[in-house]
Amino acid sequence: MVMIFDIGIKNEEVHVEVKTTTSNFIDGFEMSRNEILASQNQNYKYKIFRIYSLDTRTCECKLKIYEGPVDNNYFILEPTVLTVYQKREK
Questions:
Q1: Alpha-carbon distance values, 2 to 5, 18, 39, 59 (Å)
Q2: Is 31 helix (H, G, I), strand (E, B) or coil?
């Protein structure tokens, strides 16, 4: 299925991140550290197309568009995954 959106911006670079879930909750989606850093880049506009309540049978869904940056001013950022390294013996 192809979805086409006119986001109303012409002749301007826009980075779009699409986050999709079948849950009916608009928030609580995952983003990587690199995605968050990209959203804070001031050289271009950044948008998140948040697709939720996706019915995989009918392809019906709801859409919310967020504009970057993703930071503590606009969102609650909750770390849910940590990278674990073994300590080296001295």
A1: 10, 13, 24, 10
A2: coil
63-90 tens-digit pLDDT = 999 998 999 998 999 988 888 899 988 7
- Beta-ladder partners of 51: 20, 63
Name which of 65, 29, 32 is nearest 46 in CA terms.
65
- Written as six digits, the tokens of 12 are 């301007």
Strand partners, 66: 48
39-65 burial code (b ≥16 CB/10 A, e <16): beeeeebbbbbbbbebeeeeeebeeee
Strands 14-20 and 62-67: unpaired
User: Structure tokens of 10?
Assistant: 């012409």
Displacement of CA 75 from its chain's centroid (Å)? 12
- Phi and psi at residue 33, to the nearest 5°: -60, -40
Q: Which amino acid is at 3?
A: M
pTM confidence score: 0.76
